[in-house]
Amino acid sequence: MTLADSRIDRYRTRTMTEVPSIERNDPTVWGRITSPELANFDADGYAIIDQLLSPEEVADFSFEIDRLASNPELRLDERVIIEKKSNRVRSIFEVHKISQAVADLIRDERVVGLARQVLGSEVYVHQSRVNYMPGFEGAGFYWHSDFETWHAEDGMPSPRAVSLSIALTDNYSFNGSLMVMPGSQWTFVPCQGETPSENYRQSLKEQEIGVPSHDEITVLGNKHGIAQFTGSRGSALLFDSNIMHGSSNNITPFPRSNIFVVFNSVENVLQDPYAAPTARPTYIAARDFDPVR
């Protein structure tokens, strides 16, 4: 018996047969909330921070991510994900190691301080990326819980992680902005199906494994409703790792882009995957657990 076999898995998923949802017994807020914007985070599982970045900062970061996307050498890097249909850059992972400007932003107390409040500990960067959703052809993501994937494929023990999405373009209700189910972070939805080898190569373009059933989504939707992240460029969305969320395709002329960073508690570091043959690459799921300073 291996160490992985002997672990207690409180969030069993990727099963061969359907298993019922699990009521979360971990907190949503592990620390002490001091920012007014986070006052409802425990109940809702998310918070919107208006004007996290100034217009001048947004302009600087917009220039920076355009520079990265137009770099032909970087396009050959495995950390760059290309849209299946449009052949455009969809995401650039580990962007804080590619761009010094993004690295400095992540260390900014306005950013990392939000994660420390919610998680109640020092934090490290589990994942960072820039997301591009071009007009007309931007592909969305189906409903899912990030923690389900991070638990199954990365070995994250508990949902003691948060994601911060910083908008560099205006988020309208019609250009593929993120939708969340407020309060759904209290329910873990196991998914069916064995994780294929190197599943990340497919799932980062279009996720098929690790998505809940229509029935589960219907139950959660009827119970919690759906909220949408809309706001001007420079605003941000902080959300719990287990909240059910997704986005639709962008068929409008208005592109959408954001800087995305996942903070995990240093008390919740990755182990062996719970439901995958091997761990994903470290540019997707970091195994350098040094806290952000």
TrEMBL record:
Annotated catalysed reactions: L-ectoine + 2-oxoglutarate + O2 = 5-hydroxyectoine + succinate + CO2
One Pfam family per UniProt: PhyH
Source organism of the structure: Nocardia transvalensis
Database matches in SUPFAM superfamilies: Clavaminate synthase-like
Subunit structure: Homodimer.
Function: Involved in the biosynthesis of 5-hydroxyectoine, called compatible solute, which helps organisms to survive extreme osmotic stress by acting as a highly soluble organic osmolyte. Catalyzes the 2-oxoglutarate-dependent selective hydroxylation of L-ectoine to yield (4S,5S)-5-hydroxyectoine.
Keywords carried by this UniProt record: Dioxygenase, Iron, Metal-binding, Oxidoreductase
NCBIfam families named in the record: ectoine_ThpD
Family the UniProt entry places it in: Belongs to the PhyH family. EctD subfamily.
EC number: 1.14.11.55
Cofactors named for this entry: Fe(2+)
Protein name stated in the entry: Ectoine hydroxylase
InterPro entries named among the record's database cross-references: EctD, Phytyl_CoA_dOase-like
Coiled coil: none
Molecular function as annotated in GO: 2-oxoglutarate-dependent dioxygenase activity; iron ion binding
